[in-house]
Amino acid sequence: MRSLLPVLIVEDNPVNKLAMHALVTQLGFACTAVSTGPEAIEAARRHTFAVILMDLALAGMSGFDATRKIRTFEFGSGRRAPIIAVTAMDDVVEECIAAGIDDVIAKPVDLAHLAAKIDLWAQAALPAELQVVEAQREDEPISPDALEKLYGSVAVDAIIGTFLTTTQALLSELESALETVDQPAIVKTVHELKSASLQVHAREMARLCIQLEAASRDHDWLQALALYASLAHAFLRVRSFASRKRAHVA
C-alpha cells in the first residue's frame, strides 16, 4: 500500500537530498525530490502528494515561504497536502504552525521516526477507500493495541490519558473560538487537535479536523459548527472506548 503514496522531498543540500531519498525509498514510498522552493511549489501544483518533506533552510525561497505559497493555491481547492518540516533548526514549532506546516522532524533523521510520521500524515491524506486499517478494526475509534506496539506498554496509558485530558480542553477552546468566529484561534486549535489525533491513531477525529480546517479556510461557519459537533461526538466515542478497554485490562 505504501507504493501508492507519493512523497515529495524538498532539500537543497545534495548529500541530504540523496540520504532522504534513500530513506523514503527504503520505506517503500514512491518518491520525487526537488531542490528549491519554486520547484516544490510547481510540483505540488501539478501533482497530489500524500506527504511533503520540507527543508526549512532552502537557499533563496525558504521552506516557510514555499509552504505559504503552496497553502495559498490550495485554498478553496479541496486539496491540502500534509507538510512535514525536516530541519536542524531549533524552536520553530510556532513559526511552522503560522506558515501552515503540519509537523516537524529533527535532523539527523531516524528511519523509524520518519516512517511513523509519514504513515500518520499520509493516512489522513488518503481517500477513505485507500485507508490502511492495519490492526485497527472499523468499530474501534482508537487502537490501544496498535499504540502499545508503537510506543510500548509503559508509555501508552500515559499517552492516551494525556490525549483525553488535553483534547477535552482543546474542544472547549474550539467551541469558544467558533462562537466568536475567531479564525486564527480556530486554525491553531484544530491543528493541535489534528496533530494529537493522528499521533494516537484516532482517525475519525483526524479526518473531521481536516474537514474542519477546510471549512474554516472557506469561511463556511455553518459547516464548521456541524463538523465540531461530529468531532465532539467522535471524541466521546474515543473516551468511552478507551475507558472500556482500560476496565477490561484491569
CATH superfamily of the largest domain: Response regulator
Main sheet: strand order: 2-1-3-4-5
Distance between the termini: 36 Å
User: Mind describing the biggest β-sheet?
Assistant: 5 strands, parallel
Mean pLDDT across the residues is 83
With helices defined by DSSP (H or I, 4 residues minimum), what is the helix count?
Answer: 10
Number of strands: 5
Question: Any guess at the CATH architecture of the largest domain?
Answer: 3-Layer(aba) Sandwich
CATH class assignment of the largest domain: Alpha Beta
General shape: globular
Q: Which regions have little confidence, pLDDT < 50, spanning 5+ residues?
A: 127-138
Taken as a percent bin, the fraction of beta residues is 5-15%
Alpha-beta content class: alpha/beta
Order of helices and strands: EHEHEHEHEHHHHHH
Whole-number count of domains: 2
Query: What is the radius of gyration computed over CA atoms, rounded to a whole number of angstroms?
Result: 18 Å
CATH topology assignment of the largest domain: Rossmann fold
Provide a short characterization of the protein structure.
It is built from ten helices and five strands; from the N terminus they run βαβαβαβαβαααααα.
Tell me about this structure.
By secondary structure, the chain is of the alpha/beta class. It has two domains: 2-130, Response regulator (Rossmann fold, 3-Layer(aba) Sandwich); 144-249, Four Helix Bundle (Hemerythrin (Met), subunit A) (Up-down Bundle), CATH 1.20.120.160. It is built from ten helices and five strands; from the N terminus they run βαβαβαβαβαααααα. A five-stranded parallel sheet has the order 2-1-3-4-5, sandwiched between helices. β4 (83-87), α4 (93-99) and β5 form a beta-alpha-beta unit. α2 (37-46) packs parallel to α3 (63-74), α7 packs antiparallel against α8 (183-199) and α9 packs antiparallel against α10 (221-249).
